[in-house]
Amino acid sequence: MAQHFTAQDAAEACAAHPAVELTFPFGPETEVYKVVGRMFAAMNVEGEHPRITLKADPEDAKALVAEFDDISPGYHMNKKHWISVGLPTSAAPLNELIQASYDLVVAGLPRAERPTA
Known about the structure:
This protein has 117 residues and is of the alpha+beta class. The protein has helices spanning 7-15, 58-67, 94-107, and strands spanning 20-23, 30-35, 38-44, 51-55, 71-73, 82-86. A hairpin with an 8-residue loop joins strand 5 (71-73) and strand 6. The longest helix is centred in the last third of the chain and has 14 residues, at 94-107. The radius of gyration is 13 Å and the shape is globular. The N and C termini lie far apart (29 Å).
């Protein structure tokens, strides 16, 4: 059974990766997690629909949206490459999704800029 993930759990999972920086480019209500200056997660817990938005492989994104009610195409993002997960969630595998988002962004960095754990 999947673990119950809150916004705090998601924030801790994002911050646990190497070379992560927490920024607020969209205002104080939206936490943006970056690795070497590139966003891999954006989380907004204000308002009616708290969510975390993560980068995803396009084929995986389609499958995830179809499989999980908590997952939708990326809110205010390219719907092909980003997904949003409603918080809290007990259905979506949030740890794995955060890891995959981080890994996708790191893979797109020049080799010399990639963080080492």
